[in-house]
Design brief:
Length: 500
């Protein structure tokens, strides 16, 4: 018999004993008067004298620590990342309640009613007058609740990770505040939040491999969206001049510290502006989002301090010149020279070579939040060309911590030019590029009705949350990241056997 099986048997015996005492081992509604955090904020600085006359409270939470001493005992409750002590004496509660207290174990969830006081050591504590049992834990908590360090277990059993590691809760509070800040800022600027299809008959808006599914009633294949871009731009054609969506995208690609197949993006589109206008807007959005999420525009990320108060700006060519590693730093004229580019990259065209050099040499060096603008047309099939240099488009990326966190451009609104770009993407697909865009004739039809000059941008929520929370893996900021399925647990069989 395994240790886990023995523990289950012991805990289920406790369930029987709790029932015999007249308690429900899996209780019902408990109306508390204050959260633990509210009590600490409201009375955490008060003296013992100021807690007289008695302040009655009803609190609840999971037992974090338990200390029994003769006819009395202490326990710490945990709730929403806050901890508060309770004190139970045999002569202050009913005999039944005290017997229950002696049966409690770390991880059990209880309710307590009593009054606030300070112990001899000065700790704010609830002097319990009545107990209620709310839920029994059948499995043991990690050692001292700080023993859950195995990364695989942490991501697979996120519920246990949140119980055992209070720091994890902070990460997701930062993420929540980040999203709330971006949403509020856009709404204050007149943007309308919308929802667009997750399942699409034609995928587009990014260069990525999609997930394929099948709709039985219509007997058609559909794709989980890789980006909402083409639908959001249809809405701009329809008269929504400022529109945004915060939602999931799905890309059938590898998993790494910066990639998860299912991830969250903010995409927004603003009519009558261009990529320069979005640069200024992005700087404002990120500065305020950092402040709202962390309380400061400067955040710790590994050994670096990232400053979101201002974004540096370089053209892609300027960035290569500025951050070139090794002897013979190139000049701007060199970076414009097709022969120089071909000597430093094996890519087919000068534009592709320029991007390749940038990604290999420069990107990982851009630790401070930085805007890199003006991209080759070959890598930007949906962006508007620069009027003075048709081989380049009005596009920028925001890079911080050595990774891309945002991508934006002046939207291509010429239907004939868009058709030519789609044709080029079809040629790439014919040569085996599975990430090339598909032809979307309905989107072309929408453009034929006229789309105003527009700037559009996508911000990777997960990566931005990584930076603001100071973590190095995207899995740390996704509550339930994708993992390989684990083998059968056998837990249901054990519970079934013990139930006989």
């Amino acid at each position: 018999m395994s240790l886990q099986f023995e523990l289950l048997a012991q805990r289920l015996e406790k369930v029987r004993q709790i029932r015999e005492l007249g308690f429900q081992p899996y209780g019902r509604r408990f109306d508390f008067t204050h959260t633990l955090g509210e009590i600490r904020r409201r009375w955490g600085g008060t003296s013992a004298e100021e807690l007289e006359p008695r302040i009655q409270v009803r609190v609840c939470g999971r037992i974090h620590t338990l200390r029994l001493m003769g006819r009395a005992g202490f326990a710490h409750l945990m709730q929403e990342g806050e901890r508060l002590q309770i004190y139970v004496r045999s002569d202050a509660v009913s005999e039944r309640d005290y017997k229950l207290f002696r049966m409690l174990e770390p991880g059990d969830i209880i309710g307590a009613e009593g009054y606030l006081f300070r112990t001899r050591t000065g700790e704010l504590t609830v002097h319990v007058e009545r107990l209620e049992f709310l839920a029994k834990t059948l499995l043991s908590m990690p050692e001292k609740w700080h023993g859950l360090e195995d990364v695989e277990t942490r991501y697979r059993q996120r519920y246990l990770d949140l119980i055992a590691n209070p720091e994890v809760r902070r990460i997701f509070v930062v993420r929540n505040r980040l999203i709330a800040s971006l949403r509020r800022q856009l709404e204050e600027r007149g943007f309308l939040e919308v929802e667009t299809p997750m399942m699409q008959p034609i995928y587009g808006g990014a260069a990525a491999r999609p997930f394929v599914t099948h709709h039985n009633a219509l007997d058609i294949d559909l794709y989980l969206r890789i980006a909402p871009e083409l639908y959001l731009k249809r809405l701009v054609v329809g008269g929504f001049d400022r529109v945004f969506e915060i939602n999931r995208n799905f890309r059938n690609e590898g998993i790494s510290t910066q990639h998860n197949p299912e991830f969250t993006m903010l995409e927004f589109y603003q009519a009558y502006t261009d990529y320069r206008g979005l640069m200024d807007l992005s700087e404002e959005l990120l500065r305020q989002a950092a402040l709202d999420a962390t309380g400061s525009t400067v955040v710790e990320y590994g050994e670096h301090r990232l400053d979101f108060s201002r974004l540096a700006r370089y053209s892609m060519r300027e960035a290569i010149v500025e951050f070139w590693r090794g002897p013979e730093r190139p000049r701007l004229d060199d970076v414009r020279d097709p022969e120089w580019l071909s000597r430093h990259s094996t890519r087919a065209t000068p534009g592709e070579a320029l991007v390749d050099i940038f990604e290999r040499v420069v990107e990982e060096q851009l630790i401070q939040p930085t805007i890199v603008y003006d991209f080759p047309v070959e890598t930007s099939p949906l962006a508007k060309s620069k009027p003075d240099e048709p081989g380049f488009v009005e596009r920028f990326e925001i890079i911080a911590g050595g990774m891309e966190v945002a991508n934006a451009y002046s939207e291509l609104n010429d239907p004939q030019e868009q058709r030519r770009r789609f044709d080029e993407q079809l040629r790439l697909r014919a040569r085996g590029d599975e990430e090339a865009h598909q032809m979307d004739e309905d989107f072309l039809r929408a453009l034929c009705y006229g789309m105003p000059p527009t700037g559009g941008e996508g911000i990777g929520i997960d990566r931005l949350a990584m930076l603001l929370a100071g973590v190095s893996s995207i899995r740390e900021v996704i509550l339930f990241p994708l993992l390989r399925p684990e083998g059968p647990l056998g837990l249901a069989d054990r519970l079934r056997e013990l139930d006989r």
